[in-house]
């Protein structure tokens, strides 16, 4: 651990409760990926049509996150954190019980509602409980399990699936959640914000509509099988809801996300970069285990183990990200590294039977390193110029965009994979490998092209300080 715990026993236990909540949420973002083929076989579905299991979770989180802070301020951090754990455990039980893909997707929505509140409400509880001089130290501590979750998620998911069944990737949440809920009652203060204003329900509805209709439009091209006219109407509805929100926010005194945030140039560029640059790298945790299992015949646990180099190299590269940003600045690092990420993603089109395993492991490690640099630099440049009353809303918007981009990444990957699979005209075994290859190439081009967004940063943008990068790493 990089930091020591406070002397007060109650505060130490509260930190552990929040840390476990972070761990549960981040673990379930990745543990499902290696179990998708087994789920598909159990539910009588095609492995290539299981992206809705991931999309339902991440899209629900994107929709709920904007409301989580207001709910905690209004009803208390302990109350909302308890509700979040209860919903997360309930959703996990429903996932394990699901007998069809439809029921599983609905259960993932319930789980996503709980997961969406665990992260921001837990962070807010730490902020409200600890003095300012201890806040960063406390947040650094609770962030460690959140980093461990993605590290062990794919491997743990593969092991549970192969040793027991895919149901256990959800059932393991139940005892942890019950203990966490009991500890929350005893050790977490119910901090509230007195005099909080009314919630911007109209603005929230408009943004939620924009996100959901956009995701359904993209998924309609693949899994849902919508007609082109329906997809077009959904896209128009998404753009329309976003436009109306802008008009709404101009008139309202306290909108959900004030438009003045977008007057901060670095924030605007960073937010757009987070949205589009993540479409490629956000799809990789979904595509890689699926490619290895469906096309190359890897077992679930072996596919999970193959994801370890990604996370291990990513954690090791965080210090390198700090050095690069301090030396070259955000504009150079982000434009160069975004192109590198795109090239590495496209290089996965070289995966083929008989290829030396060591080459694939090196390839995965390189991807993990450049991906980590990308995330750290994007988070830092987005938040670096926020302050005062813009910090909270800006941080919340970034969290929302990150989860939305994860949903759009998997949706886009599924749509591309389905389109290329239909073009090939075959549906199983090695014959689908060219569809994966073409999907990797397309996602690589999309990612590399998004480097243009970061070129909009002025050359004189200040180089990142070590403290800025450290804070971004806790998000």
From TrEMBL:
It is a multi-pass membrane protein. Its main location: membrane. Signal peptide: none annotated. This is Transport protein HsrA. NCBIfam families: efflux_EmrB (TIGR00711), PRK10504.1 (NF007799). Residues 14-462 form the Major facilitator superfamily (MFS) profile domain. It is found in: Cell membrane. Keywords: Cell membrane, Membrane, Transmembrane, Transmembrane helix, Transport. The keyword Iron does not apply. Coiled coil: none annotated.
């Amino acid at each position: 651990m990089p930091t020591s715990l406070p002397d007060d026993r109650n505060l130490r236990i509260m930190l552990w409760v929040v840390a476990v909540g972070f761990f549960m949420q981040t673990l379930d973002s990745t543990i499902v990926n290696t179990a998708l083929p087994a789920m598909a076989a159990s539910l009588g579905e095609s492995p290539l049509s299981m992206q809705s299991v991931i999309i339902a979770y991440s899209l629900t989180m994107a929709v709920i996150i904007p409301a989580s802070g207001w709910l905690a301020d209004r009803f208390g951090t302990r109350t909302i954190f308890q509700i979040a754990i209860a919903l997360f455990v309930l959703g996990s039980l429903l996932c394990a019980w699901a007998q069809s893909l439809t029921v599983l997707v609905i259960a993932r929505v319930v789980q996503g509602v709980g997961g969406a509140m665990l992260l921001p409400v837990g962070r807010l509880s730490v902020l409200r409980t600890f003095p300012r001089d201890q806040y960063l130290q406390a947040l650094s501590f609770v962030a460690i399990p959140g980093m461990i979750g993605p590290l062990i998620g794919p491997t743990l998911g593969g092991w549970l699936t192969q040793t027991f069944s895919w149901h256990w990737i959800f059932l393991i949440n139940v005892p942890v959640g019950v203990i966490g809920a009991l500890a929350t009652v005893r050790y977490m203060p119910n901090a509230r914000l007195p005099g909080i204003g009314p919630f911007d329900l109209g603005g929230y509805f408009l943004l939620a509509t924009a996100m959901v209709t956009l995701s359904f439009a993209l998924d309609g091209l693949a899994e849902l099988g919508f007609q082109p006219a329906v997809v077009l109407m959904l896209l128009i509805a998404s753009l329309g809801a976003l436009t109306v929100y802008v008009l709404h926010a101009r008139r309202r005194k306290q909108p959900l996300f004030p438009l003045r945030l977008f007057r901060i140039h670095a924030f605007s560029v960073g937010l757009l970069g987070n949205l589009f640059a993540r479409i490629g790298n956000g799809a990789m945790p979904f595509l890689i285990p699926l490619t290895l299992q469906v096309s190359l015949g890897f077992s679930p646990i072996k596919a999970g183990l193959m994801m370890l180099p990604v996370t291990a190299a990513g954690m090791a590269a965080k210090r390198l990200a700090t050095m690069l940003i301090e030396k070259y600045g955000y504009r150079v690092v982000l434009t160069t590294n975004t192109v590198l990420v795109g090239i590495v993603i496209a290089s996965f089109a070289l995966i083929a039977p008989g290829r030396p395993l060591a080459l694939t492991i090196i390839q995965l490690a390189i991807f993990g390193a450049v991906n980590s640099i990308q995330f750290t630099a994007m988070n830092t440049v987005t938040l670096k110029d926020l302050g005062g009353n813009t910090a909270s809303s800006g941080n919340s918007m970034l969290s929302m965009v990150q989860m939305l981009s994860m949903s759009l990444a998997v949706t886009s990957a599924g749509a591309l994979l389905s389109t290329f699979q239909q073009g090939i005209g075959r549906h199983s075994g090695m014959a689908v490998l060219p569809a994966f290859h073409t999907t990797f190439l397309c996602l690589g081009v999309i990612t590399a092209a998004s480097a243009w967004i970061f070129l909009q940063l002025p050359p004189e943008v200040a180089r990142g300080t070590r403290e800025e990068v450290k804070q971004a790493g806790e998000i």
